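Entry 14. Two folds queued back to back today. First construct below, sequence then structure tokens.
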Amino acid sequence: MTPTGRVLDRQPESAGILGIFGLAVPEECGGTPVSTPCYVLITEELARGWMSLAGAAREADAGRRVGVEAGMAKLFASETAMRIALDAVRIHGGYGYSTEFDVERCFRDAPLMIVGEGTNEIQRNVIAAQLVKRGGLDA
């Protein structure tokens, strides 16, 4: 299986942890449903992230250099993870802070994706420099 396939296989699992399919909070705890607009926004963000990552993975599978594309996918995915984790905590309400729910771990871990392997601000500078170089704009 390609790296793309492994990553895409995890999408439903990740979405379920964040509570975007069906109930945010189990029925035994009140069964809070997720509103349709919220569901659509979060799903749209997830889809964009997966498409960005899948594009970079396809290029890598083809043997091409994907430093810029992978950097952009990491940047987008980490920013998206933070937004979705925050939305998930909002959806779960007080349960979002409870260690009984996986959303608490996602919310705690999301900032680590932004600062891990270089902060997103540094990542943006590296991407910009590579795009300028790729476009022949450097002096």
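Second construct, same run, same settings:
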Amino acid sequence: MSFFDLEKLQSLQKANLDGLQQLSSKMYDSAEALGRLQMNTLRAAADDNYERVRKLMTVRDPQTLFDVQEYLPKPNEQAERLLDFNRQAYDVFSQLQVEVTKVMEHQLETSTQHMQGLVEDMFKHVPTGAGPAVSAFKTAMETASSAYDTMQKTTRQATGSAANSAENTVNTAAPFSTPNDLGKRSA
């Protein structure tokens, strides 16, 4: 006779494997989105640079050089592109964090339910005089579960605070990348 229900144990293992597959899928999707973002950014920068070089190749005299200067890269445009890239990358990572958190919370909930069921099944087969030990074990499990819930809430708050801080930093820096504000700061 076994203390554990093997079918429940197999069900727990299958649920864990499914969760791992979901996590892997989310990671691959995010890596793909980040790769697309990088390639699109590189392609746009290369196209702009090729166009600038073409314009510079038309220069034959000082007046033409002066006219072509408007096509040269400007620091504020580059800063705006960098800021836009960082916002988009931040969005990819934020979405990944949300998705991973959902999967992990679901997995934890499912695993906890399965483990509680396995433990309850095991307690059905303990000797009669083991009541105090069983009670102590149950109390320890409840305490551990409560501690984990508290830790999880604290982690969510810290993550939310860090995300808000990063978003505020980006939003604060955004106005300084426009041409008008750059001119005002240097004047």
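Quick look at the second one. DSSP finds five helices and no strands in the chain. The helical segments are 6-57, 62-68, 75-123, 131-173, 179-186.
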